[in-house]
Amino acid sequence: MAKDKSKDDGGWGKLIRDVVVILLLVLGIHSCVAKPFYIPSDSMMPVLRNGDRLIVSKYPYGWSYSSVSFHLAPKIAGRLFGKLPERGDIVVLEHPVTRIDYIKRVIGLPGDTIELRNGELSINGKPVKREVQPMLEIPVDPNTPGPDSSLFRFVSRDAKGKEVLELPIVRETLPGGATFDTIDMGPGYTTDNYGPITVPADHVFLMGDNRDGSADSRVDTSQKGLGGPVPFDAIAGRAEIISFSTDGTAEWYNPLSWFNALRSGRAGTDLRPERQGN
Hints:
By secondary structure, the chain is of the alpha+beta class. The protein is built from 2 helices and 18 strands. The longest helix has about 30 residues, at about 1-30. The radius of gyration is 22 Å and the shape is globular.
């Protein structure tokens, strides 16, 4: 009997060790290489939509406390093999106060002077190139902005009678050539006027692509914003690609609904900005 019990203990011990090794391996990959990320809001529309699943790489900017997944690391200053982002990169970061994950776009680097007047962005005293684009139509589904969103007023019906969001798009081109689409809902928003402010050393200035609906570096932390430029150490990684996207109709108990909820044309979308001149 004692011999059998010893064998059982050895079996359980091996199982526990195997589980611990697997968990450490997953944590290591999440923290050092790449991790999945879910978009829960409309602050990065039109490029990213609620329901998108992304792959976020952890190594492009080196590693800091924010690189460790699940917020397990204490906030310690410093970065291993640190390399600043480029303007236009989409980054995942820890909120400097709450440590909640945010996703925003890098607009300003250390030493840049950032200013917005009537919604028009200037960097180092030079207006950023803005080009008005045709209205963008997005089909309405459970994961598109609802009545509590400022974007809801853009809901209309297309020629077939289906509900769509018709969004006003402005394409911006930052110094360095990064170009991407933003949403500009017009004048009257508190974030339309900001600065001028100079980005301190080892900080970056971040904004959402939905310029009038993003709690970013322009917004105080008391209103869930980032409260100004963000320490470089808070950047956890760079958004690389959309792995898949769902429309919000999936039911966890019905595997068939998982496939029906997939949005076509979203998987494989490259999230690195186009760079003019490259």
